[in-house]
Amino acid sequence: MSKKVGRAVTEKHFALQNHDYFSKLEGSKHIATLTSQLNLENLLNQFNPKAILDWGSGIGTLTNLAHKVCDPKLYAFEQDKYCRDLAAINLAGLPVEYVSEDYIPVDIEAAFLDGEISKLQINRLIASKNLKFIFIEGWRNKTVIEISRQLQRKGYAAKFERHGGWLSYYSKPEGFEKGGAWFILEKTNKPKVLISRLKRIKSTGAAADPIMKAFFELSTKTHKFRHPKSTFLSRKRAL
What we know:
Layout: H1 14-22, H2 34-47, E1 51-55, H3 61-70, E2 73-77, H4 81-90, E3 96-98, E4 110-113, H5 119-126, E5 133-136, H6 141-153, E6 156-162, E7 181-187, H7 190-204, H8 209-238
Parallel strand pairs: 1-2, 1-4, 2-3, 4-5
Antiparallel strand pairs: 5-7, 6-7
Helix pairs in contact: 1-2, 1-3, 2-3, 5-6, 6-7
């Protein structure tokens, strides 16, 4: 079978087993979708990272998947104590090192993002010299756009993909589900870095982002301008 990234096809099906197992556990309401886990498994098989950071690790779903697929050094960050306590049970026996929000390990070769992350934290993440790919669970458009912007500054060319909807391959109900998004990174020269950024503008949504912000700001200003008049008319009618 093919291991092409972007197709939910793998040889060992760790993702299928992992999703079935974690979906039955306490706190599993917001775990990564099956399609996301299949896509991530393909990336792990392709790049075989020796150290990973699971940012927003929740109850340990993707951390466990990484351990099963390629047994890397495991770093994790999770703000929610309830999730950390559940992960301690679910990942019992695994050597997971939890990090603080101010510390990004320098030896990571892959990162999974399933939680809020600031511009500064993204900057520290991309500063990792051996980073091979970044996987973003869910949509998280702002995170995707910010990563794409900062990759250029750090001298990375990157291929971006967003994918979902491969449930039928595993005899699951037909339909589309979020399958995550990812950047495959390459340190290269400035012309290639720039060309790479330009190619990503449409696929990451970066082109539409300034337009949406401008529309929001205009709508907010218009609303503030009309609100006193609307209030005055409402009072007048009440009288």
